[in-house]
Amino acid sequence: MCVLRVVRPDKLMLAVQDFVIASLGKSFVEPPPFDLAACYEDSTVTTPLIFVLSAGSDPTRAFYSFAEAAGMRAKVEGISLGQGQGALAAQLIGDAQIKGQWVLLQNCHLAASWMGELERVVEAIDPEKVSKDFRLWLTSMPSRAFPVSVLQNGVKMTNEPPKGLRANLRNFYYQLNDDMLSQTNKPAAFRKLLFGLAFFHAVVQERKRFGPLGWNRPYDFNNSDLEISMRQLMLFLDEYDEVPYRVLHTLTSYINYGGRVTDDKDSRTIDVILRDYFTPAVLRDDYRFTPSGVYYSPPVDEDMPHKSYMDYIDGLPLNADPEVFGMHPNANITCDTNETEETLDVILSLQPRTGGGSGKGRDAIVAEAARDIAGRLPDDFDIEAIAMRYPVLYEESMNTVLVQECIRYNKLLAAMKRSLADIQKALKGLVVMSKELDDMGSALHANKVPGMWEAKAYPSLKPLAAWVADLIERLHFIGTWVEAGPPPVFWISGFFFPQAFLTGTMQNYARKKTLPIDTLAFDFVYLNHTPAESVAAKPEDGCYIRGLYLEGARFDEGVGRLADSTPKQLFTQLPVMHLLPVQNRVPPTTGVYLCPVYKILSRWGVLATTGTFG
């Protein structure tokens, strides 16, 4: 595993998984189905049953289903806690102890001020005076206000969304039976479409593990979305003579699941995904969900439909290939590398803060890193001299853009130089080691960008070493512009605030042609087979830019269009692009992919003046 960490970090978690299976057994990598009955057996009248909530999980349906199976559905009293609900909750608990009822108090974390009273009520329960059928059920997000004694004495349960496509499908079908799969007056169509729906649910949930490649924003799709979609499927199959695919598709992709989606690209994606599962072809036994044929709509034994599905699900691969999510194999590299880094970050955070043995201690490493970075930083830009050399001109907005960029970089440089000097003094005992400096030292030791720098800096996901190298390159780009004038090709990734540069380019054209700027839009012309270094002069109108990268695709310069990525090549640089302002531009409607541009891989950010952007 140490060798894999060095040469193929994306394979490390698979090796960890194999190591756990070989050392402890396969059961340790396959989460067991949620079993409320077993938890109930461990409880008593004085031990509450506590659901620890997590994003994407809702135990309410499972609780009421279990209450129905236990014959206690009519004896359940539930309430969602919040302001003013404490007295009612205490009364419910008192009445239930006498009548032998179950009490469900939901969202305890929303009633922090009443948690002390809850602790008193629980501790006052006398098993000699309480009905043996009484049980107290609690649900809460992790909260510091939750009583420790209640937590220690209670039966804790958590129903996190299962990890992995197979586990997701298995968790859903584990709760079904033959009778439930034979409902509606079209049982064969219902089973096929229900499996497609469950598969769709597993796919949209599992895409989240790919980060921004899966969804631009993380969404908490949960079992309630699947439950309501299943009920609608049953309803419309009974009401229509033919399967209403269009109605089911609209309700599921745009309302039940799409109601959570806030990004227009994600809305487009979820609509396309569902088309593979709500289609007449899914009723065939030979319908394949993936090109390889590993995932398909399985044939069903009419006498034992539930067993047929469970057997098929148990035979699926433990780790799904990216193809099932409609992705290139490269997506697995990105996903697995991120998972490896997150796991190792947690391990690193658990390491002792002081070094041992003959190696360098933490303080020595931090001091050396601070000295190295401080020695590499250039002098601040002379804003007054630059403003005199590049004055505000009506016909040249780039002068204003340059001065603004220099001001922003100066603020970052000042924060860095001041904090680097302070932490070196603090390590020597010359100044007090404040919390901010201590946090900075921890970041330098872990090769991360300190928070006090990030607050003054541009968005970036790079580790500290790469971030410093990138900053030096950015400062060189701006410094060269100051000394030698505007470059023929602008490095758009080097701008602190690239939106100002784009606006300035548009302003120059609008003022030159005396056109209203709100009628202009950029046309995009690629300079194929033309390296940036060979471009000697700027264009007559607009500007040349470089520094844009594609993720999930590549630009084929031979044909001048997007193509599939090359295996193991995660990012490809676009050729030099000419941003050409055009009045009343009519974008093409065919042969074009509407590709968004983001500053960083996480696909989010905040503008300094006008809010969020994509």
Provide an overview of this structure:
- It contains 21 helices and 15 strands.
- The radius of gyration is 30 Å and the shape is globular.
- The strands form five sheets. The chain has a five-stranded parallel β-sheet. Strands 6-8-13-7 form a four-stranded mixed β-sheet.
- It is of the alpha/beta class.
- Helices cover 43% and strands 10% of the residues.
- β3, α6 and β4 form a beta-alpha-beta unit.
Mean pLDDT: 88
**Model regions low in confidence, pLDDT < 50 over at least 5 residues:** 608-614
Main sheet properties: 5 strands, parallel
Strands, total number: 15
- Tell me the Rg in angstroms: 30 Å
The helicity comes to 40-55%
Query: Which secondary-structure class do the elements indicate?
Result: alpha/beta
Strand content: 5-15%
What is the helix tally? 21
| Gap from first CA to last CA | 38 Å
3D shape: globular
Strand order of the largest sheet: 2-3-4-1-5
Topology of helices and strands:
Layout: H1 2-7, H2 12-23, H3 36-41, E1 49-52, H4 60-69, E2 76-80, H5 86-99, E3 102-106, H6 115-123, E4 135-140, H7 148-153, E5 155-157, H8 165-174, H9 187-206, H10 223-239, H11 245-256, H12 264-274, H13 305-314, H14 330-349, H15 362-376, H16 383-389, H17 398-427, H18 435-445, H19 451-454, H20 464-484, E6 489-491, H21 498-513, E7 520-526, E8 543-546, E9 549-551, E10 554-556, E11 561-563, E12 571-573, E13 577-583, E14 606-607, E15 611-612
Helix pairs in contact: 8-9, 8-13, 9-10, 10-11, 11-12, 15-17, 15-18, 17-18, 17-20
